[in-house]
């Protein structure tokens, strides 16, 4: 019953993709493209496709027919469902596909936030990024493959921040979008829940149809630019002590979506600085069955803590996902090995 002693190392080590990109011995196969992805997200231009805007006033049956006719995969269908306000919790949605957290901020802060992610790859593993002002195209291209994508509508719910303060939530960002916004997609632990279920370890919040519990901790993020004095968020799923090694084995390969747990057991609650495990800071309380203990993972709500800590240093509105309301990407669990090697362009 302990906090994983390697967490401080895992939190601040470079991800395999970044190590691969920076390695002088990476070879010519995909190396330059990887550098562009991992280091230089801010070059290039994209022309957004045109497509009919979503009409949330249509009846349920008509929307369902529209989704059926437009969807090309379970991930695409999930995004269309989110766009048309048919999704409230993405846990368990489109099994086998990786899900993403979100942060959208003015381009003047994008490079420093990018650096923050690279310095804290366990809490903030990057899956993709948009060019300034373009809500339709994500790089690497394999992250989102359908041309009708819209970052402003394809998450089920968004949070709005100004000067580090949470202002409220909304379902659509089209009327508040600006030409200099950059979006970051960050790996989410919902991505490995299908694998846990397949191993007979279904998360409690899926069984109870609730949103996973998330907590503020005392674990600091390595700073970057204006993003200083922020701490990590963790998500929690209850398990029996004898199941924890299997839980670790199942989730360990998912480095692009936080990987294995960073702490477990009742002692971890105190060591992580969690005030009350029965009253989460985000999400909903989880029921513990007899003999179960809390198991904690790094969480992609962490960037929102960096925004809070930056406070008045941040200009303009900043947007994030509502916890539990993720984007389903076109990355699949089978892509994890290549993601870890940084071999996508």
UniProtKB/TrEMBL annotation:
InterPro entries registered for this protein in UniProt? D-Glu_cyclase, Putative_hydro-lyase
Molecular function (GO) terms for this protein are: D-glutamate cyclase activity
Q: Which domain of life is it from?
A: Eukaryota
Q: What's a single GO BP term from this record?
A: glutamate metabolic process
Tell me one Pfam family matched here: D-Glu_cyclase
Gene3D superfamilies, from UniProt?
PSTPO5379-like (3.40.1640.10), PSTPO5379-like domain (3.30.2040.10)
Keyword vocabulary terms for this entry: Lyase
User: Family assignment?
Assistant: Belongs to the D-glutamate cyclase family.
Q: What is this protein called?
A: DUF1445 domain protein
Q: Can you name the source organism?
A: Aspergillus nanangensis
List the lineage, top down. Eukaryota, Fungi, Dikarya, Ascomycota, Pezizomycotina
């Amino acid at each position: 019953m302990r906090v994983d002693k390697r967490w401080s190392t895992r939190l601040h080590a470079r991800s395999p993709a970044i190590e691969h990109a920076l390695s002088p011995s990476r070879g010519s196969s995909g190396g330059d493209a990887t550098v562009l992805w991992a280091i230089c997200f801010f070059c290039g231009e994209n022309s957004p496709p045109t497509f009919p805007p979503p009409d949330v006033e249509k009846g349920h049956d008509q929307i369902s027919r529209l989704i059926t006719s437009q969807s090309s995969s379970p991930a695409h269908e999930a995004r269309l469902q989110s766009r048309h306000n048919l999704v409230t919790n993405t846990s368990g949605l489109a099994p086998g596909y990786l899900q993403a957290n979100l942060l959208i901020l003015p381009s003047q802060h994008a490079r420093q936030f990018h650096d923050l992610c690279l310095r804290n790859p366990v809490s903030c593993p990057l899956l993709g990024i948009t060019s300034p002002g373009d809500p339709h195209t994500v790089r690497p291209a394999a992250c989102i493959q359908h041309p009708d994508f819209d970052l402003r509508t394809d998450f089920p719910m968004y949070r709005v921040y100004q000067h580090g303060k949470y202002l409220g939530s909304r379902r659509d960002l089209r009327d508040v979008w600006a030409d200099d916004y950059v979006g970051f997609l960050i790996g989410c632990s919902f991505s490995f829940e299908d694998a846990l279920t397949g191993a007979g370890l279904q998360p409690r919040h899926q069984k109870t149809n609730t949103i996973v519990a998330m907590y503020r901790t005392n674990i600091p993020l390595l700073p970057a630019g204006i993003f200083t004095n922020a701490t990590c968020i963790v998500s929690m799923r209850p398990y029996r002590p004898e199941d924890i090694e299997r839980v670790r084995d199942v989730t360990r390969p998912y480095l692009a979506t936080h990987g294995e747990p960073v702490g477990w057991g009742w002692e971890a609650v105190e060591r992580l600085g969690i005030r009350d495990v029965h009253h989460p800071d985000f999400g909903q309380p989880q029921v513990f069955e007899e003999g179960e203990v809390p198991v904690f993972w790094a969480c992609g709500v962490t960037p929102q803590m960096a925004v809070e800590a930056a406070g008045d240093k941040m200009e303009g509105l900043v947007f994030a996902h509502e916890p539990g309301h993720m984007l389903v990407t076109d990355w699949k669990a089978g892509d994890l090995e290549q993601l870890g090697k940084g071999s996508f362009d």
